[in-house]
Task: inverse folding
């Protein structure tokens, strides 16, 4: 029996997660769904953004679906980003962020790329401090072990998708130690695994330009935490924007699906949240964690069927409902 721990979180997370859960239950009727708390609302209630009970439940289920959380943009004593805490505590070292052209919502045809983002270190190491008055320091941590693990995952995923190109994205010209270690470790592993013919590299600024100019030229992109965060939002434009961008955090025997978007306070409560990012994230659990690619393909087909026939993802205050019902209908 499959088990799923759902963490709706804050804002539109609470609106899109129930829709994605319905989709999963339609495909896996015996799925056991358990709910857990995390995020800003949770911090206000309990003084902690990720309670231990949430970690325990996630570990027991082995699979999670996370909506979105709000984070204050200033430092709040005792508060730590919920999603970063989950990624670190559960050793979810890999983040998969696919972008594909979709009917009607994509302004560019032929895009089908996957960003593999290192998820545990880099500039998101959590090591930030005041060095002196007016001088704040953040430490960028890159380890050979994490880079090698990322490249090994990239190699496995490249085989699964028959990658035609693998692009390492870094900034080793100005960060020769950290990005140099990243590039060399990834390159060594991928060459050893037989990918030298399709292996390529780009400096992150050029990669950003080329993702705008010719997104269809990319296939698998392998990069560090911060660069992957930024480039995946940029690339998500070609897949129909943030409301359509799914992701999956992967660790050893554990996975946490998570739409790329945040809690969208500007539209929370209005019924206008697009649930497709959450639905497609749930589809990634089916494909990459539960190894049920046929069911994942059905989610993809239902989403594309909906977009083809309805031609829009904006139904005003009925958006969440209309899209949810439209996808569910096409799964029958
Ligand atoms: P956001 O992703 O919440 O929203 C950016 C823009 O995209 C907004 O205009 C929003 O209405 C729109 N949008 C996002 N998702 C949508 C959807 N499903 N359907 C329709 N429109 C959608 O990013 P923002 O505004 O920068 O951050 C808001 C809050 O979310 C902040 O507290 C931030 O810290 C948090 N956040 C959380 C993330 C997470 O939980 N993984 C990721 C990014 C931000
Ligand atoms: Mg982001």
Result:
């Amino acid at each position: 029996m499959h088990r799923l721990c759902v963490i709706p979180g804050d804002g539109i997370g609470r609106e899109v997660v129930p829709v994605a859960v319905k989709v999963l239950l339609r495909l896996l009727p015996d799925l056991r769904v358990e709910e857990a708390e995390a995020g800003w609302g949770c911090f206000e209630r309990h003084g902690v953004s990720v309670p231990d009970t949430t970690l325990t439940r996630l570990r027991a289920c082995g699979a999670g679906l996370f909506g979105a959380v709000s984070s204050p943009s200033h430092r709040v004593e005792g508060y730590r980003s919920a999603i970063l805490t989950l990624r670190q505590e559960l050793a979810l070292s890999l983040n998969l962020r696919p972008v594909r052209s979709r009917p009607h919502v994509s302004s560019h045809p032929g895009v089908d790329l996957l960003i593999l983002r290192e998820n545990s270190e880099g500039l998101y190491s959590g090591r930030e401090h005041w060095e002196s008055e007016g001088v704040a320091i953040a430490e960028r941590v890159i380890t050979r072990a994490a880079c090698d693990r990322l490249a090994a995952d990239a190699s496995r995923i490249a085989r699964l998708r028959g990658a035609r190109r693998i692009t390492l994205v870094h900034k080793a010209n100005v960060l020769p130690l950290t990005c140099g270690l990243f590039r060399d470790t990834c390159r060594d592993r991928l060459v050893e695994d037989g990918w030298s013919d399709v292996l390529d590299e780009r400096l992150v600024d050029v990669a950003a330009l080329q993702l705008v100019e010719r997104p269809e030229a990319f296939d698998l992109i392998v990069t560090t935490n911060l660069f992957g965060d930024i480039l995946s939002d940029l690339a998500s434009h070609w897949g129909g924007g943030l409301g359509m961008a799914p992701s999956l955090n992967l660790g050893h025997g554990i996975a946490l699906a998570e739409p790329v978007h945040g809690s969208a306070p500007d539209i929370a409560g209005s019924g206008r949240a697009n649930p497709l990012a959450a639905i497609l994230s749930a589809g990634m659990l089916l494909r990459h964690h539960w190894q049920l690619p046929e069911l994942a393909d059905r989610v993809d087909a239902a989403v594309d069927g909906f977009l083809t026939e309805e031609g829009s993802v904006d139904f005003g205050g009925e958006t969440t409902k209309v899209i949810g019902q439209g996808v569910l209908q096409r799964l029958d």
Q: What stands out?
A: Residues 144-161 form the longest helix (18 residues). Residues 229, 233, 260 surround magnesium ion (ligand 2) (CB under 6 Å). The chain has two domains: 1-96+241-332, 107-239.
